[in-house]
């Protein structure tokens, strides 16, 4: 972590990327015409591998990196795959293999995306792992700036 002074501050970042080797760009910031994404460093809102890359970058730098699954969304946990009767799930009668839908997390209360991995007449299998669990990611980043709560560049302040 070369730039410890970034911790607790907001990185202004353009990015694009997705699963390594799958070709399609699945995740991206609005683009050069839009405002950069705001990422609060050290808050856990992005995977550890993303934070580590941003801590290592200079303002204005562009970099393409591979983030191994261990530093992205972790291993795919077989215990996170559960079977349910279709009637247990709202809209369960409509689920097909590959359907991604929202599930209310019982602890956080937040809606999280899950995927149906198997479907029979009466039962569906739901994978609760993060959709990118077990996958290495490839991203391009451009670090525009790192700012404090007032929007002042941390680098300009000399922090």
From TrEMBL:
Its EC number is 5.2.1.8. Keywords: Chaperone, Cytoplasm, Isomerase, Rotamase. It catalyses: [protein]-peptidylproline (omega=180) = [protein]-peptidylproline (omega=0). It is an enzyme of class 5 (isomerase). Its main location: cytoplasm. InterPro entries: PPIase_dom_sf, PPIase_FKBP_dom. It is found in: Cytoplasm. One of its GO terms (molecular function) is isomerase activity. Residues 8-95 form the PPIase FKBP-type domain. Signal peptide: none annotated. The keyword Endoplasmic reticulum does not apply. Pfam families: FKBP_C (PF00254). Belongs to the FKBP-type PPIase family. PANTHER family: FKBP-TYPE PEPTIDYL-PROLYL CIS-TRANS ISOMERASE SLYD. Also involved in hydrogenase metallocenter assembly, probably by participating in the nickel insertion step. This function in hydrogenase biosynthesis requires chaperone activity and the presence of the metal-binding domain, but not PPIase activity. This is Peptidyl-prolyl cis-trans isomerase. It comes from Raoultibacter timonensis.
